[in-house]
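In the design runs reported in the main text, the only information available to the sequence generator was the tokenized backbone. The following block is the verbatim input for one such run; it is reproduced so that readers can re-run the procedure and compare outputs position by position.
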């Protein structure tokens, strides 16, 4: 079926009108907005740049002020003095003699005429045991001796008469021999009585117990009134000799040959006893002897030193550090170990100059002993070296010197100093800087090559790790 399209006929005079294009609204506003945005961006960038520049200038000024600000440090003066070279060992104080007083007879303890802690002399009465049983036994044996002596006299007379009768042929030889034998028996009885009397006197003497040595009485172990026996193992009193007193200490076997060579020289080897911290000297004595064998389990040998101990500063079983002095090194340059720094070119120290700046000074360490070093080269007596604050320093840096405290990084081995002063208090910032401090004998050193073995105080290695300070030599 065909579809018929119908069209509406338009009049011939109809002409379609063209509509005008739509007008653009707000064109000048867009341009204005764009200009304002650009202006704001430029202004923000300018302000940002200005603030950044100001901050950079402030930071540079602050850095410049910080660079010119002196670094606070602590310093100590290098000393030139006589220093002992020694070996160090761990030791214990032991009484020179120790005696446990025991009874040698059985009986009642009557009195103890000494007090605990008293100083006693050799032979002084310490205890008294009831002597009456022993005195009675002595008197009995004396009476028996008198009886036997009388019988002996009679027997000897009978023997003499029978001998005369035998010579005359009146009695037989057997009768004479019997009388002679009786006389001999009484002679033996008299000798036995005399021995019994001597034993009784010894037993009676044992009732008075005297001190076998001079020393100090310890705590009483038995009170008066108790029955004591010769078989008792606890004893009644303990007497210890404290003057002189001994110290037993150990050294590695590798050091024995050196000690044996030096101990026989005139005067022997001096031994100094220090406290547990190895900082306070307690007493000075001499090496007495070396044990006759080495302990294979520890590789050490025992040595015995004797101290006069007049002030009783040493006490039995006290722990001490013993320094066995091998030699005295005069005019040694001694510096605090805390001042030592390490760099690729070797060991160095920061030395304070007169203008309160520091310079890097390479040094050679000969010997070391914990808080002190003996310097072979690089320093002289009177130089101020930095012991604390070196991690902030570099060469030619300005410093503000403060006196070193005793516990500043282990600087107790040297005396404290005020800024720019030597040991005598003189100013080191002028010509007095080169002067040597007073040469007082202080703590010594021992060879740094000595190995720390079982009882010897471990020495600090010169190559111990340190933080690398700024400006250290490369």
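Verbatim output:
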């Amino acid at each position: 079926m065909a579809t018929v399209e119908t069209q509406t006929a338009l009049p011939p005079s109809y002409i379609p009108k063209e509509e005008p294009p739509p007008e653009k609204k707000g064109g000048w506003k867009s341009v204005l907005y764009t200009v304002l945005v650009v202006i704001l961006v430029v202004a923000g960038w300018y302000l940002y740049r200005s603030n950044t520049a100001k901050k950079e200038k402030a930071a540079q000024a602050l850095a410049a002020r910080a660079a010119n600000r002196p670094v606070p440090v602590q310093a100590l003066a290098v000393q030139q003095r006589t220093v002992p070279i020694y070996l160090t060992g761990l030791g214990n104080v032991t009484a020179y003699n120790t005696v446990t007083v025991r009874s040698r007879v059985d009986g009642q303890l009557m009195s103890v005429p000494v007090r605990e802690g008293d100083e006693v002399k050799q032979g002084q009465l310490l205890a008294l045991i009831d002597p009456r049983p022993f005195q009675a036994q002595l008197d009995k044996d004396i009476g028996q001796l008198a009886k036997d002596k009388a019988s002996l006299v009679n027997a000897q007379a009978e023997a003499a008469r029978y001998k005369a009768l035998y010579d005359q042929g009146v009695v037989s030889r057997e009768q004479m021999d019997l009388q002679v034998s009786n006389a001999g028996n009484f002679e033996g009885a008299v000798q036995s009585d005399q021995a019994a009397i001597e034993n009784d006197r010894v037993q009676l003497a044992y009732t008075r117990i005297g001190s076998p040595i001079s020393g100090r009485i310890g705590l009483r172990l038995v009170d008066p009134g108790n029955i004591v026996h010769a078989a008792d193992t606890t004893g009644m009193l303990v007497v210890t000799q404290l003057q002189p007193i001994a110290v037993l200490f150990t050294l590695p076997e590798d050091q024995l040959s050196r000690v044996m060579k030096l101990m026989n020289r005139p005067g022997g080897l001096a031994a100094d006893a220090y406290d547990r911290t190895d900082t306070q000297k307690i007493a000075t004595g001499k090496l007495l002897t070396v044990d006759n064998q080495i302990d294979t389990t520890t590789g050490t040998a025992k040595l015995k030193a004797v101290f006069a101990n007049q002030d009783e500063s040493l006490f039995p079983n006290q722990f001490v550090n013993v320094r066995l002095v091998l030699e005295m090194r005069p005019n040694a340059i001694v510096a605090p170990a805390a001042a030592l720094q390490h760099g690729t070119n070797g060991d160095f120290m920061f030395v304070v100059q007169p203008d309160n700046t520091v310079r890097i000074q390479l040094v050679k360490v000969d010997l070391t002993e914990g808080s002190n070093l003996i310097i072979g080269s690089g320093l002289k007596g009177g130089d101020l070296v930095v012991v604390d604050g070196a991690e902030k320093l570099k060469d030619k840096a300005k410093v503000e010197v403060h006196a070193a405290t005793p516990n500043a990084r282990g600087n107790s081995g040297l005396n404290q100093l005020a800024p720019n002063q030597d040991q005598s208090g003189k100013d080191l910032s002028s010509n007095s800087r080169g002067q040597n401090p007073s040469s007082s004998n202080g703590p010594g050193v021992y060879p740094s090559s000595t190995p720390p073995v079982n009882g010897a105080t471990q020495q600090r290695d010169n190559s111990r790790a340190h933080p690398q300070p700024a400006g250290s030599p490369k």
